[in-house]
Sequence to fold (226 residues):
Amino acid sequence: MAELVINKLEGGYYHPNMLADGRVKDQRYANSGETMFGIDRKAGGAINTTEAGKKFWAVIDNANAKNTWKWNYKGGALEPQLRKMAADVMYPQYDKYASAYLTPQARSIIEKDGGLLFNFIYSTWNGPGWFKKFASDINEKVKQGVTDTVALKKVAIDSRVKEGLQKGSPPNSLVAQGGNKIAQFIYDLPSAAIEVVKKNPLITATVTAAALVIIYITVKLIRNSK
Fold:
């Protein structure tokens, strides 16, 4: 699922050195920090000081990326490794935020639906404040008895495009832009029935063929919950 976030919504590498040495000329990047696959080395905070975060950035540092990579470069031969490492950075954060902000009933519904799960995996990139806001909107609807996943996906999109971080506040342009993008495919992502066999360390996932894209996240979720 993190792979899908990177493919659909997040770009490759950027470092402020690029603006200084001419690799990037767009002055809108003047306030941007070092980023890779949407993970911000400074603004991302604690995720970058986890063991997974340190390993992720160490690979980039060892490649001398800040001085040699082009804007939006995805790592060349290092890309598959970096993609996996980005998932290792972000999935524990998803689990942490989901445990803190989603009700058990809402989380159960979300983690059986590809589109809803994608929305909340992507919400991890948005940060804890936004994750909490999106979770609150879903929790409220589920509490009211809304469990239809199509209806809940509309709630998820509206949370991004029609409102800001606070109830009734104007939408944030970047968050709304992301909402409009995921609205184009969130309804088409497959669902999965996930069964955890408690007496067996293996995880059984019953999926449609198209649902293979979300197997990795289901494995991660169970491992992180142990």
About this structure: The beta strands are 35-36, 39-40, 192-196, 203-207. The radius of gyration is 18 Å. Residues 102-189 form one domain. The first helix runs from residue 2 to 8.
